[in-house]
Amino acid sequence: xxxxxxxxxxxxxxxxxxxxxxLTLNDKLKIAKALADIGVDYIEGGWPGSNPKDAEFFxxxxxxxxxxxxxxxxxxxxxxxxxxxxxxxxxxQALLFSEAEVITVVAKAWDVQVTRVLETTLAENLRMVAExxxxxxxxxxxxxxxxxxxxxxxTANRAYSLECLKIAVKAGVDVVVxxxxxxxxxxxTVEEVTRTVKAELMPWPHVRIGVHTHNDTELxxxxxxxxVRGGASLVQGCxxxxxxxxxxxxxxxxxxxxxxxxxxxxxxxGFTCIPPESLANLSKLASTVADVTKQTxxxxxxxxxxxxxxxxxxxxxxxxxxxxxSYNHMDPTLVGNAMRSVVSELSGKGNxxxxxxxxxxxxxxxxxxxxxxxxxxxxxxxxxxxNAGASVDxxxxxxxxxxxxxxxxxxxxxxxxxxxxxxxxxxxLVQKHELERFALPAQVSAAEGIGPVDALSHALRSALxxxxxxLEQVELAxxxxxxxxxxxxxxxxxxTTRVTVDFTDASGNKWTTxxxxxxxxxxxxxxxxxxxxxxxxxxxxxxxxxxxF
Length: 549
Fold this sequence. Notes:
Elements: E1 6-9, H1 25-38, E2 42-46, H2 52-65, E3 72-78, H3 90-97, E4 102-108, H4 111-118, H5 122-137, E5 142-148, H6 150-156, H7 158-170, E6 175-180, H8 187-200, E7 208-213, H9 220-230, E8 234-237, H10 251-259, H11 265-268, H12 282-293, E9 310-311, H13 314-322, E10 340-341, H14 349-358, H15 365-380, H16 389-397, E11 409-417, E12 425-433, E13 443-449, H17 452-464, E14 475-484, E15 496-504, E16 510-517, H18 520-538
Parallel strand pairs: 1-2, 1-8, 2-3, 3-4, 4-5, 5-6, 6-7, 7-8, 9-10
Antiparallel strand pairs: 11-12, 12-13, 14-15, 15-16
């Protein structure tokens, strides 16, 4: 086996075919830059014959994004049409006009696809393959053949599928890519077939074998790895597994499995895929592509997900505090991720201690036990802390010896309506509260907002910002409401409203708080106070609240 596996990214073409993804020209350029920055070998820019946007992309990417980079730009398209010539075929001419240094040609490798979908003869399909590849080779292009439906074709008519590869090799192709187009092959089949192809192409040792898998049976990554075991030295895939139907091999995951020190081929099988220094940027790559494509990253995505190295159970956290590898398969920092403990009713003292240490606080076991008991009670009442770390931080801070809880708080609400043909409704809240937790005298603040949470936020700020100007940089980013049904034992009681609030500051820091109560206003108030107080503690150089325990 070769010591290297090339990575061929097809996010900009195959990934863009996923329902829900629509990329602008600028989006494609941003993704191309992110891929080039980590050292991906090939970046497939799209199908220049299919739309004007892709045609424009190739020029801008070649002249700007890839200038001075090692990544190669590939253009994707089909063979010439049946009973035609390459000179007459507009798609072939568009590929040539793209000036991409790599041309990837897709062709049928399953006999029934040729006769029933292309509606041509098996012999004509072979001529289409050979003539298209020859056309680009005499023009000094690196050429790959994507043998579509190869594994299904191999099962149905082994001789013909192999002949499709051999005719391409004789025409000068550089890489033959075996495609599991329907995503239904099993890993052991993929490895065996790839090994067979490797043996069949032994007379042409310069020709490389690649693999392109789909995820219809959740085996795209496993099939790609199996193909490498069978002799493939190039893997095609998409960042975050985007693609047609259920997606392609997750290239962010594939890269990690190819090169990370624990889970990838680079350590376990001795392969090199991208520069080792790029490993720590993989989490950033996955996040960047998700942002550009406007897709939500799965927190459980292996290696790069926010929960990939998160631990919730008390036994697990207690163990990793003593030995991190006890419940982590690798050091997450190698791929730009981080290990973290999550606090919930399933936690132990170790979760609290770990959270405190991460926040730069020091507390003893007794205080940790008190915080944990409080959290368990609050979760019983409807809170959920696993995604509201700032609320946990504030629960810890409030256990400080000099910290004073407010004596009382009263909510008063007034509704102001705009009438006379106008439908706008504006809610005004008057929030009277004891501000001892902020070392301020009791005062009444009033503010208007579009909805109760906005009004509450403005009311709190009007009382606090003149004393804590750092709150001017804190913004309420998002707000979620969840109705928690009462347990069976408490049927007939009022349902609890759980409010989660996301905050951000001028530096791009983000934090989340939670509040729960039968009143949505009270639940919102609790979450807002946690979030603003967290901002006071963490967003400036002013003296912080007492943190001695």
